[in-house]
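One such given next:

>
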Amino acid sequence: MLEVLEINQTTLLPNSKFFNPPSPDLRVLHLNSVAIPSNIQPIVGLEELRLSSIHEILEDGRRTWMSCRKLHQFLQASPGLRVLIVMGGLSASAADKSLQPVDLPNLEELKVYHFSFLHLLRAEHCADLIVNLWSVQERLPPAAWTTVVPTLRRAKGLGVKVSNHSLNIVCLRKPPTTELLLCFEVEQGTADLSYSTLEEILQELENESCFSARAQLSLYAHEDIGVKVLKLLQSPMPGPSSRWRLPHLDTVCIRREGFPYQHLKAFVQARANAQGDQAPKAVTSILECSRFGSDREEILAKVMDYARDEGVAEGAVVQAG
């Protein structure tokens, strides 16, 4: 019986023998550059679904990117999915916001290359996660991070990089190996989205319990965005828990082109002076990197001596380590 089906570069008709009715033993479906009718019924009981550049044929004959609603139907038909990979465009509408997320408790691998449907699924046990979100123009609904955050929590270490138009989060493994978890790229003129998205993700990361993994931060953004990130991380979250975002953050990397030392110093001092059980780990390294990151200089001592260099009276200096 047919268990695996791969279809490339074709148009499926409503009476396709693979879909109406589908093979009862079909478990793996790969569609690549395929056009499907809008009224086609998704296959039930899949364990692996890979969709790449799928178009939907509307009743009037027009073709659009596959709708989020149609993808939602695929997920509803196969709640036992173990692998889900979606590449290419998706068309979204205001009505999609009312769709309820589908629980995918068995999902092990999720690779997403479009932001419009993250809120349509919940897969809190996913171990292999890559999320690439391109040309984002507006804030994602909070439900979009329901699947991402549990995967981040299981990481042994996180690397967070904020640049002018993107937010990258990688899983830190044995140096120099890293594994991309999230790439969030925004449209020109919407750089604040990188910051607000980071704020939302860190809020979710610390909501239930303290995030205990080591973290490092790379700030390659304009000064205003970089300063906002530092200020976000130099005070505890509001609320009774008084938890700090990324409490085990120990390393900060900045571009050699320059970053205001006074903001770096305030950040290091605020975290070093924190009191109580929820106090974060002290920052032990600030690295100034060349444009391509191949050359790094340790500048923590220089940062902490900043006021003295400027001729301003200074009290105690926090030392590295």
